[in-house]
Amino acid sequence: MKEFGRVAAVGMVLAVSLVACSKGTSQSSSASSTAGPAASPMAATSAAPVSAATSTTVASTGGVSAALGAKVFSTNCSSCHGATGKGMPGVFPPLAGNPAVNGPAAHVIHIVKYGLHGKLMVEGKTYNGTMPVWGKTLSVSDIASVVTYIRASWGNKASAVTVAQVKAVKR
């Protein structure tokens, strides 16, 4: 039960971070856009590159693409969580090494899909914000791709996520 509480808290941090990062706006990577990561000071350095190992591991699983995940992350998430996934202490939680990211896929999918708000602790730091609801603006493929990308980046070693898994997660 303690582990579930810790995972839930981390999930809340993740969600808060994602909402705060978008400042209430989001854009699907499936749509063409001229806006990109350079619009944010944290993202101006560009999104974390998809390594050859990551590309090989999660390049294409059930319609999920690591390259698409990197693009979705760069466009929608990196302004808060940073291009390196380290977040901003006390403001936006890190995704790198985050137990919610590395834990059960359904939990992190739920956070991305339905958002999160309230206090949570990650790596001993408290975060209190709002993670936007991305399920209304991103396609299930975009969500599967970005969750797969963050679960395989910055030292995270969690499994890839499929479109079917994203569709299966309900409120």
What report would you give on this structure?
- This protein has helices spanning 2-22, 52-58, 66-76, 78-81, 99-102, 105-114, 140-151, 163-168, and strands spanning 116-122, 125-131.
- It is mainly alpha-helical.
- The chain has one domain: Cytochrome Bc1 Complex, Chain D, domain 2.
- It has a two-stranded antiparallel ribbon with strand order 1-2.
- The protein is globular.
- The protein starts with a helix and ends with a helix.
- Residues 1-60 have low confidence and may be disordered.
Descriptive keywords:
mainly alpha; disordered N terminus; 44% helix; two-stranded antiparallel sheet; 8 helices; 171 residues; Cytochrome Bc1 Complex, Chain D, domain 2; single chain
Provide a brief overview of the structure.
It is built from eight helices and two strands. The protein has helices at 2-22, 52-58, 66-76, 78-81, 99-102, 105-114, 140-151, 163-168; strands at 116-122, 125-131.
